[in-house]
């Protein structure tokens, strides 16, 4: 069911999908996609809240450089979209809408180029936008579209931590507590990703906290 969200993006905390893949820039003088990926995890999980917005703003510039250095590369587009989405989450308010619209364009372009890139991260990240952004007339949020995209992400990466985490979070948002519990549990059972210890640890903490919340709700 679609929701007509009337509230702006105040308190909007988007935690976009972080999926694997080794990447490098063609020009070593320019930021590598892998660097953007790893720096994102450091900012999101190891940087104090007051410093995160400025850090993501700087990283957005690097992500844009990496994307320009690799035209037609789905991974570079995905990571620029992830950084822009995260910056929007820190920025909040109606002013964040411009950032999430740019992120949406990045994810849509990545899907056209390679829907399986980074284990379907563009589907999962785009689905996260659609259920967290307000709907018309403020934003483009749409729950039916979110569900479709998140399921496509799961079809590409059925056992992945992020694909399951964001599907769980969507189900929680829909008040499907039992479905959310099962999906959070699957996210926590996901295999570790080589070289992704910081991101995996942070996502697991989030999943554990949300799992406790939905379990408590089911016990009422």
Could you explain the architecture of this structure?
With about 220 residues, the chain is mainly alpha-helical. The chain has a domain of about 130 residues: Tetratricopeptide repeat domain (Serine Threonine Protein Phosphatase 5, Tetratricopeptide repeat). Helix content is about 65%, strand content about 0%. The two termini are about 25 Å apart. The N terminus is likely disordered.
CATH class of the domain at 33-158: Mainly Alpha
Quaternary structure annotation: single chain
- Poorly predicted segments: 1-30
Radius of gyration, in angstroms, nearest whole number: 16 Å
| Average predicted local confidence, pLDDT | 88
Secondary-structure element order, N to C: HHHHHHHHH
Structural class computed from helices and strand pairing: mainly alpha
Helix percent band: 55-70%
């Amino acid at each position: 069911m679609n929701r007509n969200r009337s509230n702006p993006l105040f308190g909007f905390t988007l935690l976009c999908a972080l999926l694997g893949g080794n990447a490098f820039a063609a020009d070593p003088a320019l930021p590598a996609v892998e660097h953007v990926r790893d720096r994102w995890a450091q900012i999101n999980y190891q940087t104090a809240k007051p410093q995160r917005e400025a850090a993501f703003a700087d990283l957005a510039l690097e992500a844009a450089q990496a994307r320009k250095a690799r035209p037609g590369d789905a991974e570079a587009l995905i990571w620029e979209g992830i950084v822009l989405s995260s910056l929007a989450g820190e920025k909040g308010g109606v002013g964040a809408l411009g950032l999430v619209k740019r992120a949406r364009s990045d994810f849509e372009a990545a899907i056209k180029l390679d829907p399986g890139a980074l284990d379907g991260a563009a589907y999962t990240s785009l689905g996260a936008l659609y259920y967290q952004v307000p709907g018309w007339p403020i934003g483009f949020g749409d729950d039916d579209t979110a569900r479709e995209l998140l399921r496509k992400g799961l079809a590409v990466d059925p056992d992945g931590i992020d694909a399951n985490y964001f599907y769980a979070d969507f189900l929680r948002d829909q008040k499907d507590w039992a479905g959310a519990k099962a999906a959070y549990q699957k996210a926590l059972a996901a295999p570790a990703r080589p070289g992704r210890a910081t991101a995996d640890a942070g996502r697991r903490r989030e999943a554990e906290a949300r799992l406790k919340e939905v379990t408590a709700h089911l016990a009422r």
